[in-house]
Amino acid sequence: MPNIDILVLAIVQGITEFLPISSSGHLILVPQFFCWPDQGLTLDVAAHVGTLLAVVIYFWRDVGSMAGGLLKLAQGKRDPRARLVWLLLVASVPALGIGFVLDTWVGDALRDYRIIAGTLIGFGILLYIADRFGLTVRRMEHMTARSALAIGIFQCLAFIPGTSRSGITMTMARFMGYERQEAARFSFLLSIPTISAAGLYKGFQLVRDGNAAEIERALMMTGFSAIAGFLAIVFMMYWLRRASFAPFVVYRIGLGILIYVGLYGGWSVGCG
């Protein structure tokens, strides 16, 4: 895969990971549009690791606070700052288990254009309903372990391409009455344990296989997606202070319809 392909895909991943429009769906669609070979799950995960770096940099205060809380716990002292760590771990458990099962038994079977189109439209409508009718009365400090677990269970749906991990977790948070910015903040922080686990798993496979060329390309993907991801977070948090999720819903539905038109309306889909 030429370096320009990696650059484009890294930018796409960085932007779409934090906008509720599905990074996995776009990482499948973009190579098809340009007639590039599918980059595979390894480079997908490398791109996600880049977005993980973006989250850590943007939310460095939260990350530092959680680290301080864990340090106090290690010293045998109770610290309220560790509460957020606990909530993120509770929310991560369902996805970590489901992710391993899907990677082992399902693989690439879900990377289908009809599935992507359907999830883009269906979960886009769900996001609109949650944002339109959900209250805006709760903040992160109001979150309980039960609420975190519910968001974590919804996060499992993001393994279906086109769903959007950030989109589905923010949808659930909005249904439960969390403010838009608070829903986004928890969603983005929740990516830390989830993507860390996936990155370590795939990174171990890369090192085990000893593919130096693949490692170099993965590092490039990580760096570019980190930059794009950071800028996307800045934009998203700014946007949600002033507006709703409506433009992203419109985009999702429009893209899903376009895919269906391409598949069933006589358009040429694919490069073969």
Name a few traits of the molecule.
75% helix; mainly alpha; 272 residues
The string of secondary-structure elements, in order, is HHHHHHHHHHH
* Helix count from the secondary structure assignment: 11
Percent of sequence in beta strands: under 5%
Low-pLDDT stretches are none
Helix content: over 70%
Silhouette? globular
Mean pLDDT rating: 88
Give the total of beta strands: 0
Care to describe what's here?
The chain is mainly α and 272 residues long. The chain is built from 11 helices and no strands. It has helices at residues 3-18, 23-33, 40-58, 60-74, 83-105, 113-133, 145-155, 165-175, 180-209, 212-240, 246-264. The chain is globular. It starts with a helix and ends in an 8-residue tail after the last helix.
